[in-house]
Amino acid sequence: MEKKKYVLNASHNYNHGCTDSAVYEDNGDGTATCIQAHSCSSCWQVGHDQNHVYAEVGEIVSVASLLSCGDLEE
Known about the structure:
Elements: E1 5-9, E2 21-26, E3 31-38, E4 60-62, H1 63-67
Antiparallel strand pairs: 1-2, 2-3, 3-4
């Protein structure tokens, strides 16, 4: 059985061609692990410089926080 995935995409929040995105895979215990991540670095006006980190591969977060995130794609 394939694990459920949660896709986050922040591009709709910005008008600069933002590429913030992440994919999390459900761990089956109320948490999910980031398996793909991309952090935008193209717009310093909104804090997206070379030090901006949207998500990191390997980070573990609660599924509840993903479900309440405004960047979650349906």
